Structures are given as C-alpha cells and as structure tokens.
Amino acid sequence: MADIQIQQKSGRRKLATPKIDLTPMVDLGFILITFFIYTTTIMQPKLMDLKVPDKSNKAVTAYIDTSTITVVPIGNHKIAYYSGALNKNVVFQYMSFNDIGNYIRKKQSNLKQLSENFSKEAHDLHLIIKPNDDCTYDDFVRIIDEVQINDIKYYAIDDITPIEKELLTKRLQTKM
After folding, report:
1. Tell me, what's the pLDDT at 5?
2. Each residue's pLDDT tens digit, 126-140
C-alpha cells in the first residue's frame, strides 16, 4: 500500500523504512486453514467389522456342513479351500484369487436352491478365513473385499489348526 510522505521543515524528505502489508498473507492463511478443515471432514474412515472367535470362550462353534467353506490363503497368492467340516479325509482344493469371487457366487446360488427343509442359516454361505503363516496382508484384504462384495453375512477369521496345517503341508508336498 502507498504511504503518504510528509515534508520536514528542513525541506528534505523523510526516508521511510519499507513496510510489508501482511493483510493478504493473513487472508491466504485463513483460506488454507478453511481448506484443510473442509477436506479432513469430508474424508471419513472406511471401517469394516471383523468377526473373530472369542479366545476366552472354550465352546466349539458348530458350522453347517453344506454351507461352510474354509479358505486358507497361502503363499504365491493362492488359496487352499475345502467345504464342510474338518476331518482327516479333507482334501484341499486350490485356486487363484481371481477365481474366488466366482466360486463364492456359484456356491451361494447353489445354497439358495436347497430345499425348504434346511434352516434359514443353511441357505446362507458361511465362510471361515484362516490365514496361513506365508499369507500376505494384501491377500487377506482381497478375501475380506470378496466378503463385502458378495454380501456374506456369516464369516469368521480364525487361526489355522495343527490338523489343517499338517494336511496342507502334505498336500503341498505331493503337489510339487
């Protein structure tokens, strides 16, 4: 902004010290503060409830054999899975992450065609996710994404049992 120069009595001009007007800088500061407050309130975190078995409760959860799939993400971005209850005769099947969505949708459509004699829960897919030691975080997130995409109501995340680990290693050794 312009300053008025006042003549002194001696006839010489008074040399004014340079001044910086900070009004535009303050305006810019408030605009930036408003922008940051506005953008941080728009971005809400996206959270998903994870259902994890209670470790303090020693009761065994019963699953419906016809509508249960146990998924074990393993190394090299592969999935080992089996249907029904765990026993010594379980044979692990393998698929890639690209095929898991199609398999879930196919299983859900087969369950909808069950007779009315089955319970309401038997008509819905039950998915048990048991990450293996060599499973990556990205693989786990991809399976949780498929849970959300396919609207699976009944799912749980659990630890892989020693029996499953033994069957899985036997199967992987014979497959190689």
Report:
1. 58
2. 899 999 888 888 888
Counting Cα atoms < 13 Å in the Cβ hemisphere of 37 gives: 6
2: phi then psi, degrees, rounded to nearest 5:
-85, 140
Q: pTM of this prediction?
A: 0.65
Per the structure block, which two tokens stand in for 34?
Answer: 């408003």
Cα gap 57→68, rounded to integer Å = 21
Please report, for the domain that includes residue 79, its CATH number.
3.30.420.40
Residue-wise over 45-78: b if at least 16 C-beta within 10 A, else e? Answer: eeeeeeeeeeeeeeeeeebbeebbbbbbbbeeeb
The range of the structural domain enclosing residue 77 comes to: 65-175
Report if residue 147 sits inside a domain: yes
Best CA proximity match to 124, nearest among 109, 134, 140, 139: 109
Q: State phi, psi for 164 to the nearest 5 degrees.
A: -65, -40
Whether 48 and 118 have beta carbons less than 8 Å apart is answered as no
